[in-house]
Amino acid sequence: MSFRRHRRDAQREAARLDEPVREAGALAKKLGLDPYPVNYWVVNYDEMNQLIAYGGFQERYPHWRWGMTYDRQRKTDQFGMGKAFEIVNNDDPANAFLQESNSLADQKAVITHVEAHSDFFKNNQWFGLFSDEGQFAAAAMLERHAQTIERYVQNPDISRDDVEKFIDAVLCLEDTIDQHRTIREAAADEDGRIPEDIRAQLDSLDISDDVRREVFDDAWLEQVEEAEREAAKLTDPRKDVLAYVREHGMRYDEETGKAEEMEPWQKDVLDMLREEAYYFAAQKMTKVMNEGWAAYWESLMMGDERFAGTDEFITYADHQSRVLGSPGLNPYKLGKELWEYIENSTNRAEVADKLLRVTGVTWRNFHETVDFDEVQEHLRADPAIDGVSADSLDELSELGPDDPRVDHETLDRALSGDDSLDLDAYPWKLLTYEGLAERHYSLVKSQNRGFLSRIRRSELEQLSRYMFDDEVYDSVEDALADVDKTAGWDRMREIRESHNDVTFLDAFLSEEFVRANHYFAYEYSQSSRQFRVSSSEYRDVKKKLLFQFTNFGKPTIAVYDGNFDNRGELLLGHQYNGVILDMKQAKGVLERVYHLWGRPVNLMTITKEFDEHEVEVARRRGREPTPEERAIRIRYDGESFEEHDLDPELEARIAAGEVDYDTKPDDWL
Question: How many angstroms separate the CA atoms of 255 and 102, rounded?
Answer without folding.
Answer: 57
